[in-house]
Amino acid sequence: MFQLHDRVAIVTGSGSKKGIGRTIALALAKQGAAIVVADLNLEGIDDTVNAITEAGGKALGVELNVTNKESVDAMVEKVLAEYGRIDILVNNAGISQKVTVQDMTLEDMTRVFNVNMFGLFLCTQSVLEPMRKQKFGRIINLSSVSAKRGGGVFGGAHYSASKAAVLGFSKNLAREVAVDGITVNSVAPGLVNTEIWKSLPEEDAKKVIDSIPMGRPGEVSEIASAIAFLASEEASYITGEEIDINGGSHMD
């Protein structure tokens, strides 16, 4: 199940060791997809590409600034020149900042929205034409439990707001492109066992864990597995959905 052979998948923000992008890229590659490792971190791109190829997969590294339209369009052109198609887009690139609303600046708000929402928009818009032409596409957007319950894990109100915007954008787009064979879904992780989590002070970490019924953070592999499912043929009738992966810390 969840075989992705002959599929081409772009995973933004997949060069960093700190987040979940690299694990997502590896999971999709394991299912047979050719992976486009897109990131600003050139060293991280090489590391992820090497990890995929050493495991027997296919990968192409592309420097990407998601906030710059020319950079995004150049990436898409490069992928089409290399593979001739784009089947899957995982909008994973994101940033956060721990700051109160009182101390937040307009520059803080703009910076977070530029990456988390506007960058996601630019990448999505750029892949729509090739996906529409081939009558197939899977767009999977990373939101957060913070979008649904108003913070409580990482980041400030600007982070929560940007991730909430992702949910509304995804549902609207799902309606627009369903007739073209393109599905659009969101994944909303809760606390995940990453380097960012490990850097939390012990007291803060305990408060977060105490709010999770399962009593533990999620593993990056658990997020990646859900994304692999949404990218697959088996998820062909799921669109406009938001998948909560949070150990029960938020339940709709």
What is the topology?
Elements: E1 8-12, H1 21-30, E2 34-39, H2 42-54, E3 58-63, H3 69-83, E4 88-91, H4 106-134, E5 137-142, H5 145-149, H6 157-177, E6 182-189, H7 195-198, H8 202-210, H9 220-230, E7 242-245
Parallel strand pairs: 1-2, 1-4, 2-3, 4-5, 5-6, 6-7
Helix pairs in contact: 1-9, 3-4, 4-6
Provide the descriptors you would attach to this structure in a database record.
7 strands; 252 residues; 7-stranded parallel β-sheet; 46% helix; globular; alpha/beta; Rossmann fold
Describe this structure in words.
It is a single chain. With 252 residues, this protein is of the alpha/beta class. It has a single domain (8-240), classed as 3-Layer(aba) Sandwich (Rossmann fold), CATH 3.40.50.720. The chain has helices at residues 21-30, 42-54, 69-83, 106-134, 145-149, 157-177, 195-198, 202-210, 220-230, and strands at residues 8-12, 34-39, 58-63, 88-91, 137-142, 182-189, 242-245. The longest helix has 29 residues, at 106-134. It is globular and about 50 Å long.
Give the radius of gyration. Answer: 17 Å
Q: Structural class, judged by helices and strands?
A: alpha/beta
Helix tally equals 9
What count of structural domains? 1
* Strand neighbour order, sheet with most strands: 3-2-1-4-5-6-7
Instruction: Please bin the fraction of helical residues.
Output: 40-55%
Quaternary class: single chain
In short:
This protein is of the alpha/beta class and 252 residues long.
